[in-house]
Amino acid sequence: MRQLFPHAADDVTLRQCYDVPRPRPSNRPWVELCMVTGLDGSTVVDHNSRALSNPTDQELLITLRSLVDVVLVGASTVRKEDYGPPKSPNLRIAVVSRRADFDFTTPLWASGRALLVLPEDAPEVPVPSVRAGRGDIDLAAAVAQLDADVVQAEGGATLNGLLAAADLVDELNLTISPQLNGGDGPRLTVGAPAIARRMRLAHLLEDDGFLFTRYVRAD
What distance in Å separates the CA atoms of residue 63 and residue 214, rounded to the nearest whole number? Predict the structure, then answer.
């Protein structure tokens, strides 16, 4: 792993580069978005992100999860990526869903380490939940209720779009995979209105042709 920006350095570690201060905004947790895309912007190959990744990218996900309090993820991503209980002992998984139509006997839900983010009028569920909005989730209000200093969002693209629309993205950790994917897979955000939120490049790393970028709010 080598660092290309802000200064050149060989043999850096992921923890060196990503274990940095993330100041909590006054009214909500710091929200970082962790995603991988191909060169043409697709976030999936055959409906999941595994084929885009490599061992360093997988290590990055583990490293980032060790530095946050809550992982925020969309319901369809939980199903497609087969999320299980978090390995970090203090980490919780917050799943964003409108309907909460899950099998609550699966390992993720049986672990007691997962909660649901739901509209206020969603059905009752047998697991902890955070509720905001009626019909649609008020994501800003829901994130503000999370007991966390740092939240890592892990997609999918629809959740990313909701976060962008609500101006909740403080940090983007984007891995660029060195492959063209084609297809009609979703790009980084889906459903967000036209926005012009400027981000500042904090670092750029390279390993085996993969680029590991970290962007933070420019203001």
Answer: 14
Residue 167 DSSP code: T
Residues 184-196: pLDDT tens digits? 778 888 888 888 8
Q: Is 67 exposed, middle or buried (0-12, 13-18, 19+ CB in 10 A)?
A: middle
46 located within any domain: no
How large is the average pLDDT for residues 18-46?
Answer: 92
The closest alpha carbon to 195, from 166, 171, 155, belongs to 166
CATH number assigned to the domain comprising residue 142: 3.40.430.10
Residue 148 lies in a domain: yes
Compute φ and ψ for 122, nearest 5 degrees.
Answer: -70, 160
Residue 43: inside a domain, yes or no? Answer: no
Domain that holds residue 70: 64-180
Number of domains in the chain: 1
pLDDT tens-digit profile of 47-96? 677 778 899 999 999 999 999 999 999 999 999 889 999 988 889 999 99
Tell me which DSSP letter residue 161 carries: H
Q: Whole-angstrom Cα distance, residue 104 to residue 82? A: 14
State the Cα–Cα distance between residues 65 and 61, nearest whole angstrom.
Answer: 6
Within a domain: residue 57? no
The CA-atom distances, in angstroms, between 123 and each of 32, 127, 129, 134, 139 are 29, 12, 11, 12, 18
